[in-house]
Amino acid sequence: MTNYWTNSAYSTLAISPDRQLLVTDDFLRTYMQRPELKLVPESCPVECSLHQRLTEHPRAEVLESEISAMADEDIQENYRVWLRFRTRLLAANSLESFYMSLFKGEGVDVPPLFIAQLAQIFVRHILGDEVHPLEARMGELFFRTQKISVIDDGIVMGADEEVVAKNAQAGDTGNIMDLLKGKSMTMRSADLDVIHEDNADEYWPRNEDFDLAVQLNFGHEPINHFCRVLEKWIQHFLGAGVRITPMQQISDPKWSWHVGLDAAATEILNKLYNKELVESDELQKVICLFRLDFIDEAAVAKAQAGKPVYMAIAMNDQQQLKLKPQNLLFNLPLAKTS
Prior knowledge:
Layout: E1 14-15, E2 21-22, H1 25-32, H2 45-56, H3 64-68, H4 73-91, H5 95-102, H6 112-127, H7 133-139, E3 146-151, E4 155-160, H8 161-169, H9 176-179, H10 185-192, E5 214-215, H11 221-238, E6 242-247, E7 258-260, H12 263-273, H13 280-283, E8 286-294, E9 309-314, E10 320-321, H14 327-330
Parallel strand pairs: 7-9
Antiparallel strand pairs: 1-2, 3-4, 3-10, 4-5, 6-8, 8-9
Helix pairs in contact: 6-11, 7-11
C-alpha cells in the first residue's frame, strides 16, 4: 500500500459505491488555500471576511456585490472564476461527470490548471494504492507537460517541463536537458536519475518532486506501463475493456479509426490517414504509436467492430508532450447508449 501525490486533494474526496468521486466540503476548502485565493498581507477586509466565510462554509452563497467590493480587481476575477467552477462542480453527480461535461457544449471555461489538477486526482484514484511506480510516473503524463529530448541513437527522453525550466533558470549544471547530451546510458542514469525497472522504487520518496526523467522509446517498459494507465482510464470513465499495444508503424490497408493523444499527434495521424504528404521532420515528432483493441465488442460501434483503433503521442514544435486524456473519452468509436 503506497500513498502518493498527497497534495492532489484526492484524500479529501468521498467515493461512491460505484467508485465515482464525490465532492466534499473539505475538497472545496482546498481551493481557498491555493495561491489564487489564499490571503496575503495586502488582502483587504472584504476579501478577508469572504475568505473566512468560505473556509468555514465552502458552499455559502456569494453575491456579486461582495466580490466587486474587494480592493484588488485581479482577486475579484479569481473569485468569479472559482465561483463559476464551484457552481458547475456542485451541480454534477460526481467529479467524473463534471469532468466529462467540461468538454461538451460551448467549450471549456475552466482554467487549464484546474483541469490538470482533476486529471491528477483521477489518475491517482484509478491507479489506487497498489501500483507499480512506473505506472505512477507514466501517469504524470496525464497532467504534467513533458519536455522531450531525442539524444544519441534515437533515445527519446521525457522530463517534467516545469522541473527542467526551474533548473535552467537556476543556471544549475544539473540542468536535465544538458545532462541528457553526450553521456553514456550508464552515466545518464546516474546523473539524471532516469527511472527504469531496476530503480523504480526510488519514485516513492520523491513522488511529488516530478524530477525523474523517463525513456519513452518503443520496446521499453515505461511505454508498456503507459498503456496500462490508458486502459484503466478508459475502463473507469467509459466502462469499456480495451487492450492497448505499442507499435512502431501503421501498415494497415483497412485503417479506419485513429485518435491522437495530443494536438501534435492528432494532426500527424489525420494527415497520414488522408494520405497527405508528411515531411520527415514532422514524422520525427512522433514518439510512439499504439493499437487499441476492444475486449468487449458490444462496446464498439457496429461499423468498427473487430477493427483496431490506432493512436499516437507526439511532441510539438516546442519539444513538449502535452497529453489530452479527454481525447480518449470522446473520440473512440463507441456504440451509442440509449
